[in-house]
Amino acid sequence: MLVALFCASTVVSAYADLGNSRWNIEILASSGSCQCLALDSLGNPHIISGGTYSKKVGGTQWTTETIPIDTGYLNELSFKIDNNDCPHLCYASSTVGLIYTTKQGTTWSTEIIQKEPAVCASIFLDSDNRPHIAYIDVDENRSYSSCYRLRYAEKTASDWQIETVEIGCMNPSLFLDPLQRPHISYLDFSPLAGYIKYAYKCEGNWQIETIQKIPGWPSYGWLSSTSLFLDHQNNPHISYQGGGQYYRLMYATKTEEGWLTESVDWDYWDYWSGYHSSLSLDNEGNPHISYVNGGPGGIKGFTRYAVKRGGYWWKEVIDNLAYGTTSSLCLDSLGNPHISYSTSSGGNRYASALEYYQLKVMLKGTAGQPLPGKLQVFFSDGEPYTTMNFSNDGEVCIDHVPIGMYTVQGEYKGFCQTQNMPLDGSKNILFELDIFVEILGLPLTYVQTVSLFSIFAIMPCMALIAILLIKKKIVHTTIKSESLRNYKYNIVQKIVTGSNLRTGTVAVGAILLIIGLIVLVLGIQALQVITSPAGQALLFFSTQAEIDAAWAKVNGLLFGGGILFVIGLIALIVGAASKGEPSSFARAPAIASLKKCPKCGIKFSSEYELCPNCKEKLEEL
Question: What is the pLDDT of residues 408-421, one digit of tens each?
């Protein structure tokens, strides 16, 4: 016996209680705790529950018929559809034994494989539609666990070939590789310990590996059902119920390093958690599992579904209106899940859902303009899913995106926005980057745009003021006074001629006119963007607050540009119509006139009549 390397792996996991929000659930007329699902070549579901065979025809109508089998002591059944869409099933009975039944055309035929009591069975069809069965029978000459034997039966041209794989086993799951070699997962148990094992036949001999010892055995350990699936490289993948203090759904896969196991879902102190799991892999090798998780204190819980992508287990409740007891999962050719399950009330149900959805992402600026940036989509663990470029309309549409948790990022010239989101249906995402306008290929925010135009508006005015100051005519007069000896006073007279006033008015008017015209052009462009089909599509995905903000910016540009344009036009007209007359300031009298003492020759301001020194009358200069 080979003991495999046991490794624990860390995964990102979360649970989403979605109820039946995306699942199409149908209540079937059949009932019974033993039920199984299979899909035909067209993807139509076929369900066997107890002695009832139901199939969906044309995707709309269910047909039902009774199978001639003994359901009085039916323990467990297994069911497959062959290449000709004919049903094959086997079931274990504690009274009849192991039974194989198939339907060819309109006729059901039944074979008793062995008459000894049997409790579990798993069927698989090879490429020639021949049945292979792994099952548990009861050797009444043995005691306790050793009486349960794992056996393998193969249909030949003449009879059934049966061999024993191991004793003390329960809950087998059978899968054949492309070379028709059998692989079986099962529970090996004894009074003291329980193990999840994997057996495969190689060169005529059975090789057995131990995957995991079930902690806390033997409490409820017999509930550890297994489900086996081989990927394209014939690597085994197994779902099972782990025991111990916390009963949980477990998932194991074999790699070059050995067996890797991880916990998928669990419930505190509840042995129904992870019960009766059913595993399948999609074309990309992602595991999908249906199972039953418990309720408080061992109460049977809801049927659930889990899928792993990018290191993340997406989990959801399929049906939150009925307690489940068993489940059976199949994936169609597109990877969409189909699940049949029985309920504690005795009724059976069928649920289906789309596994792939459309993701539409739009990228725009704050003025509503589309941005041809880059879209990146990551799985929740950071593994890249896809990278695409936005079109000139600022839009990317990705079809066939599988359900899961994603990180979506829109980026344009260093500006980016990120959103973490669960994808459980077709969704539209709108990214609005803080880009108001682009000037010479440089993206600017709204604040940067306003600041830039403010600078361009202020700089010409400052230059005009500087020019006027340079042209000022300044008269400096020094007044000496005996009472304020050794101090100098500068008397400044500003003379601004009428021609200077006219030139300034025309210049300021022209600057305001140009700025107003630029702002008006920006406003008109923003209005064209927001009213275009692409802009209307962007607004369709926006909230009312975002729509109001976009229109407020457009109206602000149009109104502000119009005001500046009108003021500049008025100033330009007034300046051009001016005749160049001196301003009232230029016509004002001189700030001060001077007088001179004829005796001492000292100059004084005109407010003096007599010289303070010699008392002589001052003369006007």
Answer: 999 998 888 888 88
